[in-house]
Amino acid sequence: MKRGKKKLSWLTGFILVISLSMITLPANAHNLWLGLDHYDHQVGGTAKVFLYLAHSLPFADLGKPEKMKEFFYLDPSGKRKDFVLKEPDPESFFNEVGVPLDLEKEGTYMASAVMKPVFITMTPEGRKKQSKKGLSNALSCRYVEFFAKAIFHAGKPGGDAYRTVLGQTIEVVPQEDPGLLKAGDYLPVKVLFQGKPLLGAYVYATYIGFSTREEYAFTTKTGNNGIARIRITNPGIWWIKVPHKKPYEDKSECDTGQYAGIMTFEVK
Question: Distance between CA 153 and CA 257 in Å, rounded?
Answer without folding.
Answer: 34
